[in-house]
Amino acid sequence: MSLATVTAHIPAGQSASAPVTFSGKVVKIAVPANWTDAPMAFKTSEDGGATYRPMYRSDGNLIQMPVQLPVVDAVTQAATTLLRPEFLGELDNLVVLSGPPDDLVPQTYAVDIVLTIEP
Amino acid sequence: MSSLTVKTVTIPGSGFITAEIDLGLPGLRKLAMVGNWAAAPLTFLVPAPTGTGWNFTYDMGNLIVMPVVPGAYIELDRWLWRGVDKLKIMSGLPGAPIVQPIDASIALIGSFLSGGPVLPNPRRRIGATCVGWNGAFPTFSLDDDDVVTFDLKKLLVAGETIASVDRFDLTVSDVAGNGHDATPASRTLGVAAVSGTMVSQRFGDWPETDWIEYTAELGVTTSMSNSFVVSADVNVRASLE
Q1: Which of A63, A112, B2, B64 is exposed most, by the fewest CB atoms within 10 A?
Q2: Is A47 within 8 Å of B72 when comparing Cβ atoms?
Q3: CATH number of the domain encompassing residue A81
C-alpha cells in the first residue's frame, strides 16, 4: 500500500477549498500554520462533482473537526496533523470548509491543507 | 483502486416508503439526500426472517432512526449495514410515517476496492491452490472490516468447470464461518508467503470477515486464481449460493 497526498487550497478571504479528487480514505490532515481559527468541515459529491453536499454523521450532526490553535507549537515547532478522521469513509472527492456551512469563516491567508490518502 | 457505486431510490410523492431495494452494492456506506425532502427522519426496514413482511431495524435494541438534513451527504456507521442486501427506506417512524408530498430521492452509496489483477497464466484445475495468488496478487493493506469477493460464476465460463468449483464451499467455509483460515488444505505461512494456497497468507487472519460473495465480471480464461475481486469497506450478506 502506498499513501498519496492531495492538497486542498483555500484562497485568502475565502472559506472553501477548490474540490480535490482522489480515491480512497483520508487518513491524515495536515493543518497549515497560518490557519485562521475555525473548525474544519467537509463537502463531497456523489454525482461526480456536479453537486457538493455537506457531510453529516448518521446521527444528524455535521461532520466537523475542531482545530487547536496555535497550529504550530511555539516550543517544539511541531505542526498539527489531524489523524485518522474515521468518520470520513471512502471518497472520490472533497471540499474542505473553514467553518460549518452555515457559519463559514474566511481564512485570512491562503492556506494549503494536505490530505493523506490511503487507497 | 477504490471506487464508489451509487444507486438512487425514490419515495414517491404522496408516499412514505420506497419500494424494495435490492442493494446490489458491495456495501451500503453512505446516503446522499439528492432530492426534495419534507422534514422527517429516516427509518429502515429489512425482510423479515420468515420471508414474509418487513421488519424495522434496530441497533442494540434501539430503533435505527436517522435525522435528515435536506441535501446532506451522510456517512453511515461502517458496521451497521453489514449483512443487509434488501432494504426499504421509510419517511417517519413506525406507526407514524410522514408522507413526502413530492418525489423524494435518496442516493445510496457503496464503497469498495476492485480490480484484482488478471494473472497471465491462470492456475486452473489445481484444487484449492486455485485460491493461491502465488505472489502475483498485490499485497493490499486491508482494514478489519474489509472483505474479499470471489467470482465463482466465472469459474464456469466457456463451458469449463474448474475442478475446484465443487469444493469451493469448503474452500471458503472457514472464512464464511468467521474462521481464520480460508482453505482446508492451506498452509499458514503468514503474509510474506509465496506460492501460498490460502487467502490468509496474503491478508492475515480474517476475524472480521464473515462472508464471501461471488460477483464481478471477468474474462473467458479465468480461474479462481485470477477471478477474484478484492473489496474493502464492504459489508454485504453472507452469500454462498
Answers
A1: A112
A2: no
A3: 2.60.120
Beta carbons of A55 and B107 less than 8 Å apart? no
Residue B115 contacts A where some CB pair is shorter than 8 Å: no
By the CB < 8 Å criterion, does A95 face chain B? no
Q: Into how many domains does chain A fold?
A: 1
Kindly report the pTM of this predicted structure: 0.62
Q: Cβ separation of B73 and A58 shorter than 8 Å?
A: no
Q: Determine which of A6-20, A72-86, B17-31, B209-223 has the lowest per-residue pLDDT on average.
A: B209-223
Q: What DSSP state is assigned to residue B115?
A: -
Which pLDDT tens digit goes with each residue over B29-66? 889 998 899 999 999 887 775 667 888 877 666 788 99
Say whether A87 and B75 touch across the interface (CB within 8 A): yes
Q: Is B112 on the interface with A (CB under 8 A)?
A: yes
A57: containing domain: 4-118
Provide the phi-psi class of B50: left if phi over 0, else alpha when psi is between -120 and 50, else beta.
alpha
Q: Looking at the complex, report in whole angstroms how far the Cα of residue B12 sits from the nearest Cα belonging to chain A.
A: 21
Q: Are A114 and A30 in contact (CB under 8 A)?
A: yes
Q: In whole angstroms, give the CA distance from residue A21 to residue A8.
A: 10
Question: Is the four-CA dihedral B73, B80, B235, B187 of positive or negative sign?
Answer: positive
User: How confident is the model over B82-134, as pLDDT tens digits?
Assistant: 556 678 999 999 899 999 999 999 999 875 444 333 333 333 333 333 333 33
Is residue A3 within 8 angstroms of chain B, CB to CB? no
